[in-house]
Amino acid sequence: MKRAMMTMAVVLAAGVAQADPAMVAETAKGQTLVDAAGMTLYTFDKDSDGNSACNGGCAANWPPLMAEDGAMAEGAWSVITRDDGAKQWAYDGKPLYTWVKDTKPGDVTGDGFNGVWHVAQP
To answer: From which domain of life does this come (predicted)?
Structure first.
């Protein structure tokens, strides 16, 4: 009985593997990272590895891809701490954001905005 319970616990733990916080989708810009709703993710040239420079009004227009408490970084994915203490996903060290003017999955209207915003590509 004890052995059966241990086997069941191992099987259950294996089924709880964490999925990547974003997916890859084909857009007009080629293969692009998108969030769970299919909205394009962007990077910001003013960010430095592991730090977001987009706060306040910037974050209202470029909502960060937030990480839930306990999110586990793996591979190219990392979790950074924002100025307000909230957690945000980063890919290859670059924090990720959506753009409020993208209205449907596949939109890439933020690419090249002010010369500092770019679609995130795997």
So the answer is: Bacteria
Residue written as token pair 């690419």: 111
- Measured CA to CA, the distance from residue 102 to residue 86 in angstroms comes to 23
Cβ contact 83:54 at 8 Å:
no
68-95: b (≥16 Cβ within 10 Å) or e:
eeebeeeeebbbbebeeeeebbbbeebb
Whole-prediction pTM value? 0.84
First to last CA, the chain: 46
Nearest Cα to Cα of residue 45 among 100, 119, 107, 102: 119
All residues at 6 or more sequence positions from 66 whose CB lies less than 8 Å from its CB, including other chains: 86, 87, 88, 89
Q: Report whether pLDDT(19) > 80.
A: no
